[in-house]
Amino acid sequence: MPSTSKMVPVPSRAIIPERDLNATPILEVSHLSVHFGGLNAVEDFSIIVGRTEIAGLIGPNGAGKTTVFNLLTKVYQPTRGAILLDGNDTAGMNTVQISQAGIARTFQNIRLFQSLSVADNVKIGLHNQVKYSTMSGILRLPSFWRSERRAHDEAMELLSIFNMQHMANYKAGSLPYGAQRRLEIVRALATRPSLLLLDEPAAGMNPSETEELMANIIKIRDMFQIAIMLIEHDMRLVMGICEGIAVLNYGKIIAKGTPEEIQADPAVIEAYLGQKKEA
User: Looking at the chain, which runs of residues are DSSP E strands?
Assistant: First the structure.
């Protein structure tokens, strides 16, 4: 499958990849808003993400991008609006339920279990697939050890995506920054999501690491046939792999479109560079 697909309009005036036209969008967000006191942190946010789309959410610092991710993952409950995941309304769900429903995420600030091994961090992400009872775990019955072996094998397979299997026994906190970023993505994949949210995945990476990350994001999408939505300030990465992009400013979407359309949009240029002064 090619890394990108022709973007085509759908009846709701959104665009999704042509290859996803005959499938239910993985994410449909309508008029999402959240208010903190008198502050409108996100206002009237609407977006559709195709089932295997790599989507971008960009905007200046403080635009509300991470707040959107917090709304999608139920860290915050919206003041109004609807979030449909694979056609199902997520109203009333909490963070655990939304993870089980199929949304996984990484964070701006790395959140690993620093003192645990790399493999154990990934195994924690496999909690949705635990097949033994509490009693079996306490008594270390055969079903416990079978499940543990399956978890170890799956963790190693996931680590191999980033060629990190040789680091399985390292402490997560001992890894270089870029490797910790990659481990966080692997742990998110361990929950077997249908939608993976990446919050600034290239932060702190050098150009060669970013190039490798771009290839791996496409590889993950193709391998798992999932949608990926990312927040990122590295425009080379965003324009290089995202198919549909939404631009947020002061909590509101100011533009949506393909990379080419976004790069040429005057409102986007003004948001990033400021109002052009009259001569």
Answer: 7-9, 15-17, 27-36, 39-49, 54-58, 80-85, 88-89, 103-105, 195-199, 227-231, 244-249, 252-257
Residue 107 domain-assigned (yes or no): no
Handedness of CA 239, 34, 81, 269 (dihedral sign): negative
Three-state secondary structure call for residue 92: coil
Please state, in angstroms and rounded to a whole number, the distance separating the CA atoms of residues 35 and 6: 36
pLDDT in tens, 90-131: 999 999 999 999 999 999 888 899 999 999 999 988 865 655
Does the global pTM surpass 0.70?
yes
Residues 121, 249: one domain? no
Examine the fold and report which residue of 140, 164, 192 is the final residue of a domain before the chain moves on: 192
Using CA atoms, how far apart are residues 153 and 75, in angstroms rounded to an integer?
31
Spatial contact of 71 and 30, defined as CB atoms under 8 Å apart: no
For residues 46 and 253, is the Cβ–Cβ distance under 8 A? yes
Closest-CA residue to 34 (of 68, 66, 79, 98) = 79
- Last-in-domain residue among 165, 192, 219: 192
Instruction: Judge contact between 196 and 186, C-beta under 8 A.
Output: no
Q: Strands of 80-85's sheet, edge to edge?
A: 39-49, 27-36, 80-85, 88-89
